[in-house]
Specification:
CATH class: Alpha Beta
Helix content: 40-55%
Strand content: 5-15%
Radius of gyration: 16 Å
Low-confidence stretches: none
Strand order of the largest sheet: 1-4-3-2
Oligomer: single chain
Distance between the termini: 26 Å
Largest sheet: 4 strands, parallel
Mean pLDDT: 91
Number of domains: 1
Structural class: alpha/beta
């Protein structure tokens, strides 16, 4: 899912102060619908890509690991194999029995404005696409907040 809008329009707020608390709370939404069953227990990772999106992703995913080598190994895996995020999420969800993992990529445009390594950018996108691919039956829900372009700027 993508939340797209002009700079300053509240995209991050909608996701961080709207979507995430709604999933955590498990209460009926304003439109009368209910959030997905079990979403109160989903692990939630909110990242901004920055200049090194794989590092941002790996640090967030491995935040509960005691060793920093876990993040370094995950960065290597993500760079080499487009299925790494999907497989990592599947393992985490099975271990915690939570059903899904939510990955929020806030300021997705940083992938193009700050990341200068085309290989890293491609690996990041490939991992997101594979993890979010419905037919793969994976547990990952990916939400992106993306600033809309401004024509001639």
């Amino acid at each position: 899912m993508a939340v797209v809008g002009a700079s300053g329009s509240g995209k991050s707020s909608i996701v961080r102060a709207g979507l995430v608390p709604a999933l955590r709370g498990g209460e009926t939404l304003t439109d009368g619908s209910a959030p997905p069953k079990g979403s109160q227990r989903w692990p939630i990772h909110i990242i901004t890509p920055g200049g090194h999106p794989l590092e941002s992703l790996a640090v967030s995913l491995s935040r509960e690991e005691e060793s920093v080598t876990a993040a370094a190994k995950l960065i290597d895996d993500l760079m080499q194999e487009a299925r790494s995020l999907h497989l990592y999420a599947r393992r985490q969800v099975q271990k915690s029995k939570t059903g899904r993992l939510l990955l929020v990529v806030d300021q997705f445009e940083e992938l193009f404005t700050l990341c200068r390594d085309e290989r890293e950018r491609e690996a990041f996108i490939a991992n997101l696409v594979h993890a979010a691919w419905v037919e793969a039956g994976g547990p990952t829900v990916v939400v992106m907040a993306l600033r809309a372009g401004c024509g001639g700027r």
